[in-house]
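Re: your question from the hallway

Yes, I did run it. Sequences:
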Amino acid sequence: MNTRAVIVRALVVVMLAVQTLMLPAAHAAMIGTDLNGMIGTTDLLAQEQRADNQARLKAALERSEATSALERFGVDPAQIDERLDRLSDAELASLADQADELPAGEGALGVLVFILVLLIVLDLLGVTNVFPRI
Amino acid sequence: MPYLRGHRRWALPALLLLVALAGCQSRAPLSAGMPGEAQVPAVPFFPQDDYQCGPAALATVLGSAGVAAAPQALVAEVWLPQRQGSLAMELVAAARARERLVYPVTTPSALMANLDVGYPVLVLQNLALSFYPRWHFAVVTGYRRDGASVILNTDTREAEPMRWNRFVRTWQRADQQGWVVLPVGELPPQTRPVLLVQALEELAGTAGAAAAAPYWHATAQRHPDDYLVQFALGNHLWARQQSAAAIEAWRTATVLRPQAFAAWNNLALALAALGCDTADALRGARHSEHAPQALAALERRLAATATTVAASTAAASATATNIAACR
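Structure:
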């Protein structure tokens, strides 16, 4: 009798516990018709920002003055391109901003300065070895 | 030394010289068609009290964006007595709290372009040295002599000219941080989709989606062919319960970048929520670049939604009103 009561009570407790745990799940499934499961804008932003900065840098490096400057330093543009992945988001953003400021057209001077900054950054990261003393 | 061989021997010193020369640009970069001088009209002026350049500068750009605010009223919000100053972050947040979009200005050409169309620019300057900084907020309200000097509302002086190369050094020592505060529904002359979407998100986060709505309207017109803008516009409209318009924006996003999963995901869930057919959207999601578990979660949700919508008695009437959105 006593043991039976204990078992019944235990069963009730277990059932209640299971119900409490299941309820939110069932509820979530029901309101799954709304915002649930939607991908938020902030979820995409960081990744989009990086892609945007990389694209801007790439565009600057593809300009003919830039390619010839890199060649003069004996650096393969394709190699730099692939190594830009190592830069932090902030470094990438700052370089991309500088690239955007380069004067269009005959601004070879600006491009050279920019390439120099880029090489120094990459040198510090050990990617290239143009200035071995840094 | 053997490590500098051949042409490299002269290349490095030559480049360093070029860097030095480029360092002293004496004029701001003006793009073609910009006048030799510009002054933003009717910028309010608030001479600062003591060290309170932050509140004064903020009140100035807010006034220009159509928000009347006295610096004294802003002090409690943005002035830190211990630091005897304000943090840039807090100034920006205070402007957003007044339902205005704040967009970063971080390059000389962007600064000039904003002045040219009539938006004063709030800038952070370091008036001393990089290792011994003295931070200062000021508002650039115009430029003169083809960009050889800028006009600032700064400390207790109104329309104070400052030589460009002096200004730009103080600005560079503060990492060229600057901001425009925009009148309702207006955008700065040059915008990059990622930065604009981020600014809009931050505005919605502080002041609510309704505050962002007029700026979103302008953004959708400015960047109709940008995936991120269309995707985020869909999210904004969905949060504003404009389901049909949201679906339209997500559809556009899937056309612009069919390989992106996010827009297909949201489109499918929205269509399902309205009781529309999701087969096409689900097919798009399957063909996009996705994480297997993300697609599995979407499929699970769509299956769950299909049963709940079918079971719901309101489904019939809901579907009738949403037919237009289903298309």
